[in-house]
User: What shape does this take?
Amino acid sequence: MTPKTIQLIGVPMDSGKRRQGCLMGPDAYRTAGLADALRDLGHHVTDAGNVQPEGYDATPHPHLYAHGETIAWTRALTKTAEAACATSLPIFMGGDHALALGTVHGAAAHANAVGRPLFVLWLDAHTDYHTPQTTDSGNLHGTPMGFLTGRAGFDGFPNVPHPIPHAQIAMFGLRSVDAQERAALQNTDVTYIDMRHIDEHGIAKPLSDFLARASKANALLHVSLDVDFLDPSVAPAVGTTVPGGATIREGHLVMEMICDSGLLSSLDLVELNPFLDERGRTAQAMVDLTASGFGRRVFDRPTRAYS
Assistant: This one.
């Protein structure tokens, strides 16, 4: 793989849901050796430290959890992502999945500035296609794809001048989708690949088709990798565990194919809650998957947490 200029950006964001712990995610990735893993592959890696939101109104919303704080994070991350995408391949170390409200928004602004489409690969058990009006939980980590595609109802959030066209989105690993999300998505051109489809047909062909479309369009590719894309038996450190997820080998195949495509332009690593981990094994699994996305192929090393 051609060496990349990679910028690690910590996002200690924990406002997207009520169960706390994701704010520890960035330091868990650092401790698990993400920077060294990427440098060992020949990439130039810098750690930009952690993003912090600007001041916000903390008045409780009648339905939405941490509404004002999440808006502040979205504004800060939009600016950070747009600037980072212009000079590097940023990896956003989360943090809960509400961070994508800002990271993808900023990546879309950068894509528009350079005259290229942005394709989004969403690796997640959930579609996160809610709006503030349709979410029963009030947790905004379930709304990024709704926001980014320009759905209505995001009062107080930044405008979305460059919504992601549905045909430029693929969601893989789905197995927990609310009725309102399912009904809304079925009328769109989103590519949605649930676990039954993967069980019956495998993961390589639909991913290859999506990446080929992105390549033909000369697109930039933002990948948003949620810990719960993986089965909780191999990645337990997430507050939204859903049994029946992708195997570790399927996860590596996805990341290896992304690497082979040469399209990756920005990456989210989200929903890691170290408080729920078992001696760091989820953080290490996510670091290994990331390394596969940047050229690692042969696994021949000790597992540090158990050696």
